[in-house]
Amino acid sequence: MKLKDRIRGYLPVVVDVETGGFDESKDALLEICIIIIGLDDQYLLEPKKTLHFHIKPFIGSNIESSALKFNGIDVDSPFRLAVSEREAFSEIFSCINEYLKNEECTRSILVGHNAFFDLGFVKAATDRINLKSPFHQFSTLDTVSLSALYCGETVLAKAVAKVGIEWDNTQAHSALYDTQKTAELFCHIFNSKKT
């Protein structure tokens, strides 16, 4: 079995973003993490490659104070080592395209917890910087729906805990941590129904 045979030729890529609000057209993208999923020696899904970036707010973007309070991001901190949207997405897409070729997949599909939100911000950023995205434009794999079916929970922390994956509230709401936990949950659910 190859990865391309698992989900209709798609390369699953787990994505989480932290933002300055809920409107992808005007609110800043502040942080993004992606984890590319592959197969282990037992043909089970597992995280393969992680990329994580703090993002400089695009010119004219909005940042709600309530969003910063929620995600704990200090936009002005020099320790963020933030990069431009172009720099982050160029590296992310280059890496995804390399995996697409190596795994003989036709397209990548965004996996996320409330995936429409993450996909909206990814699409808005790629439109701003005029980059071609390897992601399917509207199809996603949403761990909210998957975990509702699998374990009766929709909140990430509760779903993760219910399936026996460790959760640390002090690390939650960072793109890196939330992506790692979403990837673990996604792989757990899919591996329980190996086809």
Give the helix/strand layout.
Layout: E1 10-19, E2 29-39, E3 45-54, H1 65-71, H2 85-103, E4 107-112, H3 115-129, E5 135-142, H4 143-151, H5 156-162, H6 175-191
Parallel strand pairs: 1-4, 4-5
Antiparallel strand pairs: 1-2, 2-3
Helix pairs in contact: 4-6
Summarize the structure.
The chain has 195 residues and is of the alpha/beta class.
Task: Tell me what you see in this structure.
This protein is α/β, with parallel strands linked by helices and 195 residues long. The protein contains six helices and five strands. Helix 4 (143-151) packs across helix 6. The longest helix has 19 residues, at 85-103.
Largest sheet: 5 strands, mixed
Tell me how many strands there are: 5
Strand order of the largest sheet: 3-2-1-4-5
Q: Please report the number of helical segments.
A: 6
Q: Which percent range describes the beta-strand content?
A: 15-25%
Mean pLDDT rating: 96
The quaternary organization reads as single chain
Order of helices and strands: EEEHHEHEHHH
Radius of gyration from CA coordinates: 16 Å
Helical fraction: 25-40%
The first-to-last residue Cα distance is 10 Å
